């Protein structure tokens, strides 16, 4: 169908995109195993000494631990809330359904700096700043639409007659929910929770606003260090993020398939 | 007479059913949907509460003598913000940067999404998807760090230029660097919004146009692009909003000299400690962002956009 010239035109643009998308990842991976002291080109030989160094660095280890706590809190808060909301939106006939959707999309429509500062004021009023749970809850708020969307798109695929059949066979409401509704929305729940965890792990601006010097998360720690001097140990830390991202993509692909994002609604 | 006992699971389930009947009787089942959506409404309510706090704060001016917000309410902060040449300059830079970044992002995202949808090989498609998702999942800080290594004064590009005898160039901390960083940040969003729109266009329509004698360029221009227009407009508006309100890219690749609106707001809160003015600026940004989103909703309806906006 397409001639060689057309393929060339498309693919050269695609290759520019691939280069732009991947260059930082590749360079960070390369810089993390350099044996030199500064980032240099061409690289000065191979060594794992920067990984050794970050394994020893207490502040980085603690920041990483805090990021894990934030991501876990975020997922634990958002998982039940978003799953129930996703099911409610697609399986129940609610009045004002359109208004509800617009309301639940607020975390996306309000710019991140606005929601971050608003939540900072709210948690400040409640004397919550300085601990980690507000950061997790804030991440749950700002990314909730991802989870609601992925759950409701699997819930719409469930035939309501299946739930009626279960009820007809004598299953109560709880039993129907646990054995029919919940398994049906599982793919959406898994995709959504994975997104929530990884996005909370990476969340930068909201963490920056809600943390102080004692509770910095890993992205904020990296941001603060970048502004002083760029050494390869930060590259080794960044590789941690790359590995986590890779693992999340692999899990997503195995569990639901990446092609799901190409489907037209 | 041996006493028969039901399996534990059954008894547990019966207990749960009885508890459910007690707590939420059958006659309330009309409202079950509302019960299930209530936690989400409350969680998002935190955000609304935050906006209300900001609205309250934005009406109080900072007393320079005591460094306390004033008791009486006034619109002075909004007047200060609208009357300040600095903020208009920051606003103009943000709009220009966001527009340029959106145009470049769409120009790159369209061929990428087209290749993604039309490529025959499943392996190639998966590779393209992984390349797209990896930066999306890595986060903005690490990506910016990569660019600092590549483009910095002692970075890879300048070292390579030095090898062929070209003096180091200042590639970072200027406007083009911020726009470039924004394009890299926005590309996955744009492709993921465009791809479903292109999936919806059957390949046969292109074949039909070609068999009627249209050249390939004309087919793309007169058939594919018009059919993909909803997707293009949606992707464009979402990237525009994200670029306009971004904080991390101007902060890290702009080096303090290329502030966007979000950076100015941050500075009001954490450098100048003028919460009132910062809140006023933030609320105006929220209003601008909401206006763009209202435009999307008006064009496509809430249903089509719902829960898929940033995907």
UniProtKB/TrEMBL annotation, chain B:
Q: Name one Pfam family in it.
A: BPD_transp_1
Cellular compartment(s)? Cell membrane
- Source organism superkingdom: Bacteria
The chain positions of domain ABC transmembrane type-1 read: 91-296
Against InterPro entries, the record matches this protein to: MetI-like, MetI-like_sf
**Principal place where this protein is found?**
membrane
Signal peptide location in the record?
none
Q: Which residues cross the membrane?
A: 31-52, 95-115, 127-151, 171-198, 219-244, 280-306
| Keyword Transmembrane attributed | yes
Quote the PROSITE patterns the UniProt record gives. Answer: ABC_TM1
Record membrane topology: Multi-pass membrane protein
Check the record and name the SUPFAM superfamilies matching this protein: MetI-like (SSF161098)
Keywords from the UniProt entry: Cell membrane, Membrane, Transmembrane, Transmembrane helix, Transport
Protein family (similarity comment): Belongs to the binding-protein-dependent transport system permease family. CysTW subfamily.
What is the name attached to this protein's record? Spermidine/putrescine transport system permease protein
Q: Which organism is it from?
A: Cereibacter johrii
